[in-house]
Every structure is written in structure tokens, then in C-alpha cells.
Design goal:
The structure is a single chain. With 410 residues, the chain is an alpha+beta fold. Among the domains are: 30-126, Alpha-Beta Plaits, CATH 3.30.70; 197-269, Orthogonal Bundle (Hypothetical Protein Yqey, Chain: A, domain1), CATH 1.10.1510; 272-363, TruD, catalytic domain (Pseudouridine synthase), CATH 3.30.2350. 33% of the residues lie in helices and 20% in strands. It is built from 13 helices and 13 strands. The strands form three sheets. Strands 1, 2, 3, 4, 5, 6, 12 and 13 form an eight-stranded mixed beta sheet that branches. Strands 8-9-10 form a three-stranded antiparallel beta sheet, with helices on one face. The protein has a two-stranded antiparallel ribbon with strand order 7-11. Helix 5 runs antiparallel to helix 6 (214-224). The two termini are 15 Å apart.
Amino acid sequence: MYFTKSKPLNGKIKHRYTDFIVQEIALDGTICRILPEGISENTNIPGDPHNKQFLHCTMQKVNIDVQNAIKSIALNQKFGKTRISFSGLKDKRAVTCQRVAIFDPNLEQLKKFKYNQIKMFDFSWQNNKLEIGDLKGNGFTIIVREIDLEEQEIKTIITEFEKQIKNGVPNYFGEQRFGGIRQVTHLVGKLFFQNKTKEAVLLYLGKTNDREDQEVKEARELAAKEQYLEAFKKLKGNIFRYERAILNSLMKDPNDFVKAFQQLPKNLMILFPHAYQSFLFNKYLDLRQEKFGADFFKVQKGDKLDSEGNILGPLFGADFKFSEGIIGEIERQVLKDEGIELEQFTVNGFQQMSVQSSTRPIKLDIFDFKVLEIGNDEYNENKKYLKLSFNLIKNSYATVVLNELMKCDN
């Protein structure tokens, strides 16, 4: 469902890692810089003249998720990941930069750090670690390729699109929230809420996608059939370490699915129930669009507002209180359509999967939207590319903006 009425741009994103650049914006408005290819500065680390404990730096990464990037630094330092903090997650298939803080690092060891996908630079000593949420937002520079339109038509679409996003777009959670190419995270979360623990674990292990390698698909099919040893042997490489940990647990105790899933790190486990909360929030936005159309952002009876007057939508949990009026009707309809009751958000016997309610703004504001280039796509004959940039506040998704512009599945 699209909120904007501009014509579809279509096209593809993330053809190359460098087509999707994310730069963290600090609370003071400072934007992390990106280093050019072939340049690294992690040897230029200052000593600490004031006995401060935390070394802050910019971490630039390419096609690696934040957790694995942090793990690589921790291995260099020969200590646990908990001594490295950061403010927010970033896309995996992209070039991203963000600030991280390392507690009491070994500087000589850090100078030896070499990892093709990670650069560290712009070092400074501080008295504090970084907390999740300690950022203002993110800046995006994105290339959309394989556009089958003439340059003038692209410009016309962009002009109309810019007019329609001036007052914001619905603040959907992006597809990254639901588990990448398999889009399984929220489905697993729902099964936990339905007290279907075995089904949840087997779905996480066993759901396949055509874009995965054949051996990986075969391994997942074996896991779904509860052939854990055979699946374990086929799932190779560090990328599948979580699946392997669960399979290893099930090989030892094939009936304890809670224990098996608890092999995941706590910060990863909670992604599953939260993903289902996010899925329900997106359903709420869909129903609100169907009900109010162009009046989507108009305050309705029952709407909750924050201190700045922004409308807040529901993140359902066990303690959720339905709103009054038409908004309460929409909230109830979301749960009815999904066959979920509020009490199910408390998962007996697996407390880590239980969630409390919260809220999220229903509007996504887009700042500094700019077209940087339109040209011939060197990777797709007779097609165009569009390079654009924009900024979003934290907890927002660039893919939501791109979906509104492109109006196609990517």
C-alpha cells in the first residue's frame, strides 16, 4: 500500500554495496564521514593524556552487520563484545559508518587490526560509553539502478514525489525488521506468542528462500524434518553459527526447544517478538490508510499524542490498553485479523519472548531530500540510474521512503 500518488519509478537498489551509503548523525548533528576506498586510518590512534576510559571512533563497514563487526574488533582486543558499545544498528548490505566506543582498549593491538570490510578512524578519548539510541538519525546516499524511463520522466516523477512527501509518509517498519531475504523473524515471533515453541524453532531453522544456495536450502529442509545432525553437517560457515548452535542443542536434547532457542544471544532473541510487534504496527498503518485516506495524519478520536503533538500508533503488548472511538476499533481489528489476544503477549515458560506495549509515531518526516545525479546505468544497458540523498531521524527506514518512490518490490 502506497501513501504517495506519484507515478512508479521502479528500478532496483543495492546492486553494489556502494550504492547504499548510511552515515550516522550524532545528537549534536555531526555526520560521520566516509573514507574513500583504499584508505585506512586505524594506525593513527592518540594516547590518552587525561586518563579517560573509552576510546570513541568511527567504524566504517561494508557488507557486514554491526554484531559481526563488533565481534571482529573484540577478537582483536581479546575481550568480550560487551566492552564495545554503539548507538544504533545499520544495514548489512551497504557501506555504513557510525560511532563506537571501546572500553580500555589495547592500543598497540588495535593498530594491528586489519579487516577488509571494516575501517576505524577519527579517534577521541571520552568518559562515557555509547547507549542504544544515542544518535539523532542517519543520512542516506542511495543509487537506484535499472530505471526504464527517460531522464525527463524521472525528473517529473521526482518533482511530484517531493511535493507529496513534504508533510511526511506513514512510518512503516522496513523489511529489514522482518529478517532479510527469508522474512521469517515476525512469523517466528507470532508462533512463540501462540505457544507453539517447537513450530517457531523449526520455522526459524527450516524456512527456505530461492536466493539461498542449494546446499543451504537442503540443510533447512532437513532441519524442518527434525534431521538435526544431517542439517548441522550441511550448514557450514560462521554466517550460520546461530542455526548451528540451535541444531547442536537439539541433537543433545531433541525435545527442549526453549533451551535450543536460548542458544541465541539475548539481544538477538528479543528481535523475534519485537518483529511481530512491528508487523502488527504496519498492519495498523494499513488499516488507518484504508479508513482515513488523505486524512491519515489528521487527529482522530482515541489518538494518543506525544508532547509535541505527534500521533502515536500501537506496539501491542500484554499491558496494552485499547484506545477510544474509531482508533480503538482499528486496534481491535488488527488483532482480530491476526487471531491474537493481548494475553498471548505473555509467553508462559519462555519469559524472554514476552513483550510489553509501547507506541511509535505514525509519521515519518524526510529531511534534505536531494537529487544528486541522473545518468546512464553502466551495469544495465539502455537503463538510467538515479542518485539521491536524504536524512531520517533514528528508528526510521530508508527502504520505506524508497518503496514510496519506486512502488515496486526489491
